Amino acid sequence: MEIIKQKFYSTFVYEDRWQFFLDGLLMTLLLTFASFLGGTILGAMLCGLRMIPNKGVQKAVKWLVNLLVQLPTLVLLMVFVYLVFSSTSLSVVMIVIFGLMLKCGAYLSEIFYTAVMGVNEGQAEAARSLGMTKLQAFIYITFPQALQSAIPLYKNQFIITLQETSLVGTLAVMDITKASNIVTSRTLDAFFGLILISVIYLIIGFICSKLLGLLSIKKHLGGVDND
Fold first, then answer.
1. 91 by DSSP, 3-state: which?
2. What is the spatial distance between Cα 40 and Cα 127, in angstroms, rounded to a whole number?
3. In a domain, 226, yes or no
4. pTM greater than 0.70
5. Does residue 24 fall inside a structural domain?
6. Has residue 112 got a pLDDT over 90?
7. Residue 144: domain span
8. How far apart are alpha carbons 51 and 44 in whole angstroms?
9. Among 227, 130, 209, which residue's Cα sits nearest to residue 163?
10. Closest residue by Cα to residue 110 from 55, 73, 70, 168
11. pLDDT attached to residue 41
């Protein structure tokens, strides 16, 4: 028991090392939510562009999405930090958020597009025959069904984005994983640090998955609860 107390003290209390974990947690939350929100907007825009009846635009968007999806996340971030934006005044954090946003947006565009294309087009046509405009048919008929279909994968993408933030320590950004590594290098004991960050990732993922699951509740969308 005394050894455990000493390890706990060395990991969190001595030299106020808990501050590393707090700063790392705040950075992880910033990277995750900023890139996921931006990725959602970007994904919706790319999905919309793919639905434009212009083969040139469709091919360009599909090519861009395939490039972002196939390129490993860490490699993409390194290209942006060390090559594309190396001579700019942008902070590494901003560049990382931009890179994660592009990666997230590429995946989400595929999810959104597949969900929209999976809705029976006959329902929208029937709505237009009853007097709805094409936009109204999409908003009231196609979109709710597509959203119901996309929610499970949408929640999974949030978890993936959260997990990918653990890569940024390689680029000298102190997220929660990097904070644990810094403290471990000083204490030479990774036990409490790894336990803490594992619990933190699990809690963030669980809470946010439940919150995102509210989007699929029947009373909100007129569909079936997918929780």
1. coil
2. 28
3. no
4. yes
5. yes
6. yes
7. 2-221
8. 11
9. 209
10. 70
11. 95
